[in-house]
Amino acid sequence: LSMILLVILVGCGEESRTIFTENDISIVPKPLEMKFNQGAFRFNEDTKLVAPKDQGEVLDVLKDKFTAAAGWTLEVLDTAPRSNFVLLSTDSSMAEEGYDLKVMDNQIIIKANGLNGFLYGLETIRQLLPVAIESKSLVNNINWDIPKVEIKDSPRFKWRGFMLDVSRHFFDKDYVLATIDQLALLKMNTLHLHLVDDQGWRIEIKKYPKLTEVGGFRVDQEDKPWNARPTPDLGTETTYGGFYTQEDIKEIVAYASSRGVTVVPEIEMPAHVMSAIAAYPELSCFQKPIMVPSGGVWPITEIYCAGKDSTFEFLENVLLEVMELFPSQYIHVGGDEATKTNWEICPDCKKRVANEGLANVEELQSYFIQRMERFLSSKGRILLGWDEILEGGLAPGATVMSWRGVKGGLEASEAGHDVVMTPNSHCYFDYYQGDQDAEPLAWGGNLPLSKVYQFDPVVDEMTAEQAKHVLGGQANLWTEYVPTYDQAEYMTYPRLAALAEAVWSSKANRNWDDFSNRVESLFERYGKMGINYAKSAYQVTT
Ligand code: TNX
């Protein structure tokens, strides 16, 4: 009799685990393959986290969640106990950034070939757990169960990016670190920081301290719309600004690397640099003293002088410090929207045109970028630029970011260059995401969640050969109309989730109805995390 009782008791213990159905599973981005089995794994205080020696740090993404929400400090080991563990197991045959996740009754195994795969396996577990795992304070009376699934997953594209414009408005280090966490949750691996623009220079450069002392600050005119802010007179006291010290940058880069994210710095040239010229007027053709503008200046004529060698010396020195801080293979040099009226009349520029045998000053743009490309490639880096760098001939080793639609991507890939697709039609998160009368002021355009979801970095017009040159895709948050952290979150989430699926999931696995169901659990998760996501985005499906 006692045997029977024991069996019943043990049986009951098992049955008390949550009974899941396949509909309870909601992972964004959608995994490549998933098999659902009956049963559940239960996390408890004794669950061990097991990683190869010296690779245990990645486990923090899960460990810290349990510490906050369950109050447990899960132990990390380097060999697996008999049962009740999550094991990271290295398998060099696995696809880059891919992972196999197998959830069994009493153990969970994640196979991957390195950090990103392990991380993504753990982020998937996080999304299988009750949403309460996102809580920052203790949650009682909850079973930390996850369904017994077998997942085989790997990304469609290797560049899964998000750009944050920290120039038009400054976003401090903590906001950047929080953004990195959100990228990792969605299995995104690239954070492009737009560190330089007319309205602010945001990275400390030791050799040129005025870049941030002067170029990092401006006269606050936030009360006026972006396009109605006159450039202030010289001598006016500045009231808005900020920048990252080199220590801040080191912290951001190190944190990103622990979350599988590469930080790509963008140092704009030859235009969108009024902040630098305000600090060092000698960088322009006519040394005219200017202020850092608060609003948009159009057309942008105050640009670096392409005639003086000292401009290139300055840029090389800046990039040397930048490369010291950012291990990224790609260095973004901007290249967009330069109006060459000063170059037309500048004697040094005219001389350069003649000496280099160029047809006109327009060709100086491509001279400029090619010269920077030679410098960067001599240091083992790859130059990346907006699609304007195609004009007048692309530098040999350059990679192109196609933003004015897909044209630049088509042209560059046809010429055998790599491209990152970020067409403004689908990837510009500064655009409205719903009814313009109901939404907060934005740049214009119309980019609801459903349209982001339709984004595909490979377009029909591409041949198979061209498609091979598509590294992936990226969303860009330009921040002219994004003055606060709350507003930045509002513009970013959940559209970033739609973009993440477009760059991670297989084409066959993408389905809007299915995604819109899954995004609802993500809303709950964002809610628990205290993220100001746009609920409105979801209601608009046109
Ligand atoms: C174009 S995209 C720009 C940015 C603006 C953005 C606004 C690009 C390379 N240049 O300077 O912020 O449009 O949508």
Automatic annotation (TrEMBL):
Limits of the Beta-hexosaminidase bacterial type N-terminal domain: 25-153
Chain ranges of the Glycoside hydrolase family 20 catalytic domain: 157-506
Top-rank taxon, per record: Bacteria
Protein name per Swiss-Prot or TrEMBL: beta-N-acetylhexosaminidase
Family: Belongs to the glycosyl hydrolase 20 family.
EC class (word): hydrolase
Keywords for the protein's UniProt record, in alphabetical order: Glycosidase, Hydrolase
Signal peptide coordinates: none
EC numbers on record: 3.2.1.52
Record flagged with keyword Hydrolase: yes
Record keyword Amino-acid biosynthesis present: no
Catalytic activity, as annotated: Hydrolysis of terminal non-reducing N-acetyl-D-hexosamine residues in N-acetyl-beta-D-hexosaminides
